[in-house]
């Protein structure tokens, strides 16, 4: 779907996947005016296909557009475009367990010119790809590197938006994490490099205590981390399961002390790609420590199973999150 100043959205088309031809002076290549989303469609237990909360992705896409001075695609148009592609690719939606069809909607400037200002032409595209289970050989805790040198987003910046620049800024820290032998980066706040923000492409959760009495805490939305749709869903699922939940500031000292004195029992990350990933080990320039016994925690796995059962139609959908496509 194209957008042109003075004309709005027009020319919706369903086309076979093919390369785009880009002018060397295309504004996006130079000034990164681009936003995207990631969501999944799952084969349901009854054989139908349903996507998970596409309206929530559509609203986040609008918020990202506002931050990047781009036009806002109506929620219905975003959802309709995703639906059309899922219906077209119905035979590509895998039916095994956690497998899904991953959808990648994105919007970028198509205007040609080197002036630094909001472009007056954009193109919205959705592409899709079957996605396998994130942990085909069983869920394994990841190790994380606390990035103190690099920050992902600063107050007033683009941290809340899903825009390519945030990911470009993250790559050097991911390289650093890998050089430290860690799987993922954990970002800290820009001002004090003390408070936990989020992981590479996932939000974080901290579990205090065990069983049904466990309390579940996630870093509050400060404006510098991405408001994950999985994060939001898990706050409600945890409450449905009877857990107390909170959004709060959590410092690196709180994390370390909690693991050392045993009050912080489990830590996990969550996002569309992996749903839930346990965190098993933390490393920083100031030392390292283990989270629990290195095995996926009981509360983490219960939340994971509950959300996946809902997404694949094996459990009721009390919040009306599944968008059925027949
Ligand atoms: N943080 C970042 C930086 C991400 O890229 C993602 C993935 N979209 C998330 C968190 C998790 O968001 P969601 O649950 O909506 O996938």
TrEMBL record:
- Top-rank EC class of the record's enzyme: transferase
Query: Which E.C. number(s) belong to this protein?
Result: 2.6.1.42
What Pfam families does this protein map onto? Aminotran_4 (PF01063)
Co-factor(s): pyridoxal 5'-phosphate
Tell me which PROSITE patterns the record gives.
Answer: AA_TRANSFER_CLASS_4
Keywords, in A-Z order: Amino-acid biosynthesis, Aminotransferase, Branched-chain amino acid biosynthesis, Pyridoxal phosphate, Transferase
Is this entry keyworded Amino-acid biosynthesis?
yes
GO MF terms, alphabetically ordered: branched-chain-amino-acid transaminase activity
User: Which pathway does it serve?
Assistant: Amino-acid biosynthesis; L-isoleucine biosynthesis; L-isoleucine from 2-oxobutanoate: step 4/4; Amino-acid biosynthesis; L-valine biosynthesis; L-valine from pyruvate: step 4/4; Amino-acid biosynthesis; L-leucine biosynthesis; L-leucine from 3-methyl-2-oxobutanoate: step 4/4
Q: Which InterPro entries does this chain map to?
A: Aminotrans_IV, Aminotrans_IV_CS, Aminotransferase-like, B_amino_transII, BCAT-like_C, BCAT-like_N, BCAT_family
Catalytic activity of the protein: L-isoleucine + 2-oxoglutarate = (S)-3-methyl-2-oxopentanoate + L-glutamate; L-leucine + 2-oxoglutarate = 4-methyl-2-oxopentanoate + L-glutamate; L-valine + 2-oxoglutarate = 3-methyl-2-oxobutanoate + L-glutamate
Superkingdom field: Bacteria
Q: Which family does it belong to?
A: Belongs to the class-IV pyridoxal-phosphate-dependent aminotransferase family.
Which NCBIfam families does UniProt cross-reference here? ilvE_II, PRK13357.1
What PANTHER family does this protein's entry cite? BRANCHED-CHAIN-AMINO-ACID AMINOTRANSFERASE, SUBGROUP IIII AMINOTRANSFERASE
Q: What is the name of this protein?
A: Branched-chain-amino-acid aminotransferase
